[in-house]
Amino acid sequence: MPRPAPGVPLYSRNRAFRSQTPVYFFVEGETEEDYIRHLNSETAEFHLIIEERSTDRRRLVEDAIALRKSRMGKAADLRRPHEYPRTWCVFDYDDDDRVDSLFRKAARHGVQIAFSHPCLELWWLLHFQPVTSSLDADTIKMKLGRLSQTRAFRGLSKNKHLTSDRWNALQELYPTARMNAQKLISHCGCICRPPHHGEDCVPSKRSPSCNMADLVDSLKIIY
Ligand SMILES: [Zn+2]
Fold it and tell me: How high is the pLDDT of residue 10?
């Protein structure tokens, strides 16, 4: 997939009914971008913009902060509240312990992070079944490939894209995934503040965990 064009909104057939509120995404890979593009077809509330795709998580967070700072002047103008710069970074853990400092930095600057530990495929799996213990990425992909409910997730190691078949299999099960992700928080071991992890919680130690539902809910997508 070619690199996204920064600043260009993803439109869909319901564009005529869209508000002008942009949401900027800084995503780690093509799979994350696939997911945002599918979500784009579900919301009329926002203009979703894939601002950047990079495997360097630090770069994603720093560029999101820079964009937010650059737009804050306009946001401060109350005549243009739609320009309030909502920014999300979307990445998984992938043994990158910088995520802890990146979380702190993002929080200081109002940038939100949709984080999956160990990998985004955990979020797919939570649509179909609860997860009660730490799983590595290969095991998660294997479990997805063996699902009896759908064949769509077979061959994930060869093709990790969120194809239309896979997206269709996920859609109706969003409430299940959301509930299963929240269960993971209660099993985390931190002093949690449901539906969120506690302030003492270290993101790199949250395995398994996924807060993708925060992102979906923030877009006011209701299933
Ligand atoms: Zn926690």
Answer: 73
